Amino acid sequence: MRRSAPFAILFAALGCAFLLSASTPAYVPAADYCAGQGPTTGSPLCATLPGNIGPDPVLKIDNGYRGIVGANPTAPSNDVETPFDNYSWQTFVALNWAQSQAGQPAQKGLDGTAGPRVWQGWSRVSKVFGNSPVQANCQVPQGYEYFSIGSNGSGKPTAQNEEYIEAATLKPAIDVNGNYTLYERRVNGIEIAYLKAPGGPGQPTWNLTTVQGQQAFVNGGGKTNFPAFTGTTPNGAMEIKAAWRILDPKNHAANQKLYYVVRAVIGVPPDLVDRGTKAIVAPVCTKVDLGLVAMHIIQKNVTTKDTPALKADWFWTTFEHVDNAPLATNACDITSPGTCGMLNQTACPTAATGSFSYYDPTLAKAQTNFPANGGKAFKWNGSPPYAKAYLQSVPGSTRKAGSQITRCWQVYQITQALNAQWQGQLKAIGSVFANYMLIGTQWGAAIEPRSSPGPEDAAPNYLSNTVLETYLQTFYEPGGKYSPFTTGSCVSCHTAATLVAGTGQTANFSFLPGLASAGLVRMLPPSKAFMQKK
Question: What predicted TM-score, i.e. pTM, was given to this entire model?
Answer without folding.
Answer: 0.92
